[in-house]
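Pasting as-is:
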Amino acid sequence: METYALLMASTLNAGTVLALAALGLLINEKAGIVNLGAEGMMLCAAIAGFATVVHTGNDWLGFAAGMGAGAFMAAIFAALVIWLGTNQYATGLALSLFGVGFSAFAGIAYVQEKLPERSHFSIPVLGDLPWIGTAVFKQHPMVYLAMALALGLIWFLYRSRAGLVLRAVGESPESAHALGYPVRRIRLLAVVVGGALCGLSGAYISVIYTPLWVEGMVAGKGWIALALTTFATWRPARVLLGAYLFGGVTMLQFHLQGQGVDIPSQALTAMPYVATIVVLALISRNPTWIRINMPASLGKPFHPGS
C-alpha cells in the first residue's frame, strides 16, 4: 500500500511540471498564438532557477528567476511574431533551438553544483493520515498552486470579462479590433504570461523535481505540454487531468523498473512519448471535435489594417 502511495505522490509531482507549462501554453493559444518554443524556454528557466538557488539558497527566488527568464524569452517571441509578422511556427522552433543551446552553454559551470538541503513539506494533521497523507498531503506547495491555477484559469476564461476578451481575440481578432480592443497588446500579455508559467515549470524541474542541473534535463516535457493542450481540447480542467495522466505514465516506468519487471529499459523510457502519440492519434480521429474547441484564429497572423 505504501508503494502505491509513493507512486501517487510522484505522479502529482511529475504532473505539476506538465500542468504549469501546459496551462501557460493554453493561455497563449486562447489568444490565437502557438508558441513552439516551450522546450527552450523551460531549459533556460531551469538553469536560471537553479543558478539563483545555488547563489541565494532561496527556492522562491529561483522560481521568480525562472519565471523572469521564461517571460523574457516569450516577449522576444511575441515581438517577432506579433509586431514583425514572422511565422509563428518557425519562430517558435528557433526559440526552442536557441534555448537548448544557450542553456547548455550557461549551465556548464553548474553541472557539479548541489542545492542546499531543505525540509520536506507536509500539511499538519492531514500529512499524518495513512496512505492519503503520503500520497496527497506531503507535496511541495507548487503542486497545490498548479491545482489552484487551473481552477483560477477556469474562472478567468469563462466567468470574467477579461477572459471573454482574451477568448474573443483568439476567436476573431478582426472583430475584437473593430470593437476597439488592442489585439496586439492583449496577445503580447498572453504570450508573456504563458512564457512565465513555462519558466516556472522549468525552474520547478531543476529546483524541486530533480534538484540538479544536467544539459537537456527537460527531456521533451515542453513538447508533451504542447501536445497536452490539444489533448485537453483547450480546457484547463482537462489540462490538469491530462498532466497527471502523463505524469503517472512517466512515474510508472520507474515503478516497474523498481519492481523488477522484465521489460527493456528503452521501452519503459519511451512510455510517456508513446502515450502522447497514441492519445493524439485517438483524438485526431474526430477532427470536428477539435475544430469546435480550437480557437478559430490559432496560428494565424493578424494584420490590423487588413
